[in-house]
């Protein structure tokens, strides 16, 4: 075994987990500690790994043969794919203990937990032996000094915390994709989930909310003050904001609409008028739109913008001014592959595809799915009776609304 005898657990987060054949199983998300009836430090019984499709499984500590700076390697044996569930006498080290406010003995100075180390005894048992604490003391000690302390020198690590921050946990979650961060939030107790969600900036929280099931979206939004909730809704895609608001009572909807900027609220209001299960109800009102005299170079620059989702960036919708939906007369589509084959100075009016029949706002979802599958498209335009572009339905919108309503809810995963 090449594993060191002391491992700081925050450094494990995100490491790849490999089976004995060298195939990646998933990535480490946390460590599981079992509480003891004595004052001895909690025993580390395993790690939690996240597999593809965001399933979290338990890896017993005795199955792990190697831990280094880049990976965790498992030994031989059958891997239990049952979804991980924390037992009553267990805790997750990073999720439950990071950012706790504690007291450093013997002088009673306050501090905040920023990491914890597990150590292996001569008998092969792993336990939480060291606590990394950022201390806050008087004039003689620099504020924020980091100390590595023995377990018995830190009081208040175990038990219900009076207060618990989020800074260290957020630092660990920072590099996660929104969908993975959404999954991590679903694994947390409601109070902790709401604390972490509230600590995210508006844009990041908006991205994460779009990946959560509706009941979690509603609970997180309800836990924010109304002005902050309105700010987050403004950062969401209009179609996702409309879906979330539709789950709220009418009176609450109006309060939030009043707090939103009119230019952000108006597209969301419009989307909420369409019948559920139609193109109007699932479309985005902010596709990439350019005029026919725009050049290929301008179009390529536009779809390179990093904030654009891939399905939106896959095509340019060409229409007469104005460019905001509802636009002037819709003319056609230019796919990004066509842009790559044309000279940068070529104008879009000369290369657009006008042979794709646009959807109407009342086109049912089943018909949209058939058209996308028939013509291998990732997006379809939606026009009104005056042939003005009012939005676009993307393949991710179709998938989102075709799957069961609770498909994002990890709590209902069937056991493997």
From TrEMBL:
Keywords: CBS domain. It comes from the Bacteria. Residues 283-351, 352-410 form the CBS domain. This is Magnesium transporter. It comes from Phytohabitans aurantiacus. Pfam families: CBS, MgtE_N, SH3_actinomycetes. The keyword Transferase does not apply.
